[in-house]
Amino acid sequence: MSLSVALKTANSGLLAAQVGLRTVSDNIANVNTPGYVRKTVNQQPLAVAGQGMGVKIEGVKRITDQYLQLASLTAGSDASRWGVVSQYLDNAQSLFGDPSSDSFFFSRLDDVWSAFASAADDPSSSLVRSQAIFNMQDFLSDADRINGQIEDLGANLDTQIQADVGRANDLLGQIDKLNQDISRATLVGGDASGSQNIQSQLIDELSTLLNVKVMERPDGGVTIRSTEGVVLAGEGAATLTYNRSDGSKGYITAAPALGVAQAIQVNSGEIRGLLDLRDDKLPGLSSQLGEFVSRAVDRINAVHNASASLPAPTSMTGRNTGLDSATAASGFTGSSTVAIVNANGVMQRRVTVDFAASTISIDGAAATPFVGNPITALNTALGAFGTATFANGALSIAAAGGNGVAIDEGTSAKAGRGFSAFFGLNDVIRSTGFTNYDTGLKSTDAHGFTPGGLITFQMAQADGKPLAQVQVAMPAAANMSDLLTSLNSTSSGVGLYGQFNLDANGALAFTATQPANASLSVIADATQRGVGGPGLSQLFGLSSIDRASRASRYTMDAAISADPMKLALGKLDTTAGTTPALRPGDGTGALAMAGAGDTPTGFSAAGTMGAVTMTVSRYAQEFGGSIGREAAAADTRMTSAQSVQTEAIARRQSVEGVNLDEELVMLTTYQQAFNASARMIQAAKDMFDVLTAMI
């Protein structure tokens, strides 16, 4: 080996040792720096013409493990998703109160039943009646408060999703920009670890917002893609957009730097959790609250409609059924009695309508058949004693001559309600909109919607990613069966995604077909049933907004609230002749009200519970338990995801983190290599000096 070769070899070793010492020094100095990844020198033998010439530095690289990085990113996404879900569900659960306290929401109905039980013992007491009214009002007010606060939580979600999407866009822009710095450093063999560490931290933060795929680029840096492969960073930064509308599921679109915007799947991360809460969890909770309150109110109103007060009200006006007179009055079974009574409760006129036989009886006389609308027949039978009219979807019965109206439901039934209850003639709790979607309509009934009216549905995947918009026109053909055919058409309806069905109570519901399992939302409804009537979605509760707002639509009847003695706690005695059919001190109706919570009731599918038949009291228990289970399940998933994240980070850190013992060994090794190279240079110098002296 010549002296020049020896010098070059020693010099390369000296330079390599210096780079190694600087690298080890950086590692030791950043042992406690968050996000720092330890570095190592990549050195290779240097050969010229097959002869060893020392060592060359290929560059400085970070010690990473792609598998562990992917595992930690996935775990971070899941932990963030369930963390935010657990937080919001815990907040939602707290709205219902402490189950062990008297303020627990589901205890409010028990107070209502108890108040009516007390009223049954002393129906003449104005104080006891007032307490029953107060307890009902307390139940409705609490339901309204809870529903309003759930809506507020939902409004906060939209704001937070927008903020998270904005932050994700910032991160994508920074990640893409750092790619340029890393690529330049890589091309010249420089140290790009600083930029790579920053980029890695940005990717970690991005993964907490939404799940991404990370791939290293050959020229340095990374490419970020969505689940389906849309480039989010690496070829220019994509722009994410949060798309939402009231009543439909939200979703995220990505507009690549060199492409068109398209919807992307977001399977985990905080954004996924927020979307789940906004589109499913909280609306489902509101819908289930609305279903519970609506059925509880139905039970209370059903008993009140089957009861009577003394003195009887001079008139009764029902709720807007959304139907025309002929359709609303058809389809009843059994019979019902309408009585006109004087101030002492003595019947002046008694009309019994047998809906099944289409006959009518006046004051106990032989029944005579009637043709056509039972309401028209009832009005005729009342004669000079009163009137029965139907306008704007509502039935009204009024007594003449200062008398009052009392009704015995008898055996009448339609859509699970008696004659008076179906029309809401003597409701103690009134609604400001449509809250019961058991319309009583049959497939052979006229649908009543103006032909050509359009309703637009948004079909979406379970995660909110849109499938199609379907616009359906109301058919010119008259019957509900024709309407169902239009809705379920595979060419102009939702038939490709599922089917609408009308059940025995006249409730219309959409059932998705597998495997798409598409969700349906109403984004526009220009339909109308009759003149000034409800739209299709309003009448049948097809919109999630309608169903979610039901719990806030109830108020106590103003007349009863003002005068507790108008509370119907007695029963009409249809067998009374000239003796009073309504008697003071009769608590029969109050006793029936006290047991209303134990009457089997059909509940539609809502929230986490499917369609069931059970008592209102039992449903309250199940509902309260489901809220707790949902919050507990989210907390368990959060804890599990955080445990996996902690383990993944620990394993990743064991590879990427700085180990002082290892670094001290490397420091000693590089110091010795430096000293050896220095001694070799000194030896070569000494030999040059000797040769020079000899010459």
What does this protein look like?
A hairpin with a 5-residue loop joins strand 18 (454-460) and strand 19. The strands form nine sheets. Strands 13-12-11-10-16 form a five-stranded antiparallel β-sheet, covered by helices on one side. It has a three-stranded antiparallel β-sheet with strand order 3-4-5. The chain is of the alpha+beta class. It is 45% helix and 20% strand. Helix 2 (66-94) packs parallel to helix 6, helix 4 (126-187) runs antiparallel to helix 6 and helix 6 packs antiparallel against helix 15.
Secondary structure: number of strands? 25
For the biggest sheet, the summary is: 5 strands, antiparallel
Distance between the termini: 21 Å
Which consecutive residue ranges, at least 5 long each, have pLDDT under 50?
none
The secondary-structure class comes to alpha+beta
Mean pLDDT over all positions: 90
Number of helices in the DSSP assignment: 16
Strand order of the largest sheet: 13-12-11-10-16
Percentage beta strand: 15-25%
- Shape call: elongated
Helical percentage? 40-55%
Structural Rg: 38 Å
Draw up the topology in text.
Blueprint: H1 3-29, E1 39-48, E2 51-62, H2 66-94, H3 108-121, H4 126-187, H5 193-209, E3 213-216, E4 222-225, E5 231-233, E6 239-245, E7 248-255, E8 262-264, H6 270-305, E9 315-317, H7 325-329, E10 335-341, E11 347-354, E12 359-362, E13 368-369, H8 374-382, E14 386-391, E15 394-399, E16 404-408, H9 419-423, E17 429-431, E18 454-460, E19 466-473, H10 480-487, E20 498-502, E21 508-512, E22 519-525, H11 536-540, H12 544-548, E23 554-556, H13 558-562, H14 588-594, E24 600-603, E25 612-615, H15 616-656, H16 660-694
Antiparallel strand pairs: 1-2, 3-4, 4-5, 6-7, 7-8, 9-15, 10-11, 10-16, 11-12, 12-13, 14-15, 17-23, 18-19, 18-22, 20-21, 24-25
